[in-house]
């Protein structure tokens, strides 16, 4: 900056020029920093906001995972395998109890005569079975609450086992044994086929429910039309329908098709398989019993 004096033209009464007062001295300016600017050493790291994950999205949606499995997904293979083992363990215990009742009611003459004379016990067991079935089917929170879900399933199993044993007591011993053997072969074959096939039976669930309604209406017709051929046709359709239901429920447990059951629903899954197998046995027993007449 120039240090020469600057002059102002002022009127001093004589027409002369008067020098201007000196300005402030020009100090050298400090150099400006060039971007990027250094950050202070004590600057805190950015903290994540509460309720949000740090970093850019997208974020995975929160799933219905219980506190027992905070890091496991329901589609995880180990979780699904543990679920399948639990379902078949419960199912094995149910079938063991049921066929133990069938064995006692068929081969022990004293018990067989008692249940045939006291038919009212069948209706009592049916009422207990129906109430427990409604509770387990409609109350999702209850059937997932341990140990009450197991208690209710045990009551249902005992009541249905009594009904099945009482029905079997009115048939010949040979017919009951044949029905048990055919049921074992059919169910084992359907389960293995459902595990191996690539066909999705779960997509046919709606059609099977409609067929079940038709079968119920057909059973009402059979009450008024007492005919051996009609009874055999009705029992055959029932056995075929519940065989299809067994295939569907098996694939629902596997979880690799269009529809799947949650691993929390092991009681509901065991209940579905159990009722399918029992209905197959009863319909096959009715076919053999009517054929022997």
UniProtKB/TrEMBL annotation:
GO terms for biological process: negative regulation of apoptotic signaling pathway. It is a multi-pass membrane protein. Residues 19-43 have a biased composition (Pro residues). It is found in: Membrane. Residues 1-43 are annotated as: Disordered. Keywords: Membrane, Transmembrane, Transmembrane helix. The chain crosses the membrane at residues 87-108, 120-138, 150-170, 176-195, 207-226, 232-254, 266-288. Belongs to the BI1 family. This is Glutamate [NMDA] receptor-associated protein 1.
